[in-house]
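Entry 14. Ran structure prediction on the chain below.
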Amino acid sequence: MSNRPKHKDHTQAMERVISRREFIHTGVFASLPPVLAACASSGKLGAARTSETVESMGTVLNVWPSSPPGGENVTVTQAEVERSKDPTFRDVAVVNTTTPTLTLFRSNKPSGASMLIIPGGGYRHVAVGKEGYQIARWLTNEGIAAFVLLYRLPADGWTAGPDAPLQDAQRAVRLIRSHATQFGLDPARVGVMGFSAGGHLAARLATRFDLKTYTALDDADAISARPDLAALGYPVISFREGVAHMGSRTKMLGTNPDADRIKEYSAEMDMPHATPPCFLMCAADDPVVSVENSLLMFRSLREARVPATLHVFESGGHGFGLQSATDPSVAAWPGLFLEWSRRHQFMTTH
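Output, structure tokens:
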């Protein structure tokens, strides 16, 4: 039996990721604009497929031109999991990612800005519905092109282990920048927005953007992976005792990581001055990821003299996405983020 990841057919694997009853699959490259079809078929962006909904779901692009690096001992099978029976919104997650992808949502009123969205899931799964596609549709309404990242998980047997998700995130930023002209984007306005464990990955991308995690594959890998700003929603940040979300830490580092390992993967440690401006938001009553994570990150950003803002809502719990079922006041954060992003010249007024 082969030890390669179980995705015999790249197209079938991708269809599992984006399989939705309301989607109409239109075939590989079939309805891509000519320039995107050329990029995809050249291998620069990997295989591509388009899907259509009333919300105009975008193009799905492979992060890697072939199999992701270090998959020789990966035996998991990628699958989609339903997390809600709500007929108005299907909250889905993907487990055991073997084919990392970027799903592009275009804006009808583009500003040139783009955002890499990194959903959470405790490094157990990737919550592409609530913290991915739903966030993307909001951003596109505000003039920001959105790329939802389906990333690999650290406990699935990848050679890079805890750095496998960061490999995907770094490569994603480089791909967005390398094809900015084709997508009508400004390569100097590429942000990252992450939630929960996705906030941890976004924070690592913002602080470890120049860490060499994989061997360069093409010209895109010569481009900077540094985001131009970062937005972190109720993020996992630190793996220190008493602060860490232990589920995320265990999935990433195992049950008994040593002190050096904990420090290495705690995003608030050794903050570089080149970290991009950061927007943080969370709820004080979060029962899953302690508010101390955001407080530690904010303190480290200030000490490194990195522009940062922090919004702590009195209540709202964890994983609320665009709004909380328990406290409507957290629904203010999208507007606060947009105002902040304009101050940092990320967004233009329209």
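Residues 77-343 form a domain with the Rossmann fold fold (CATH 3.40.50.1820). Will compare against last week's run tomorrow.
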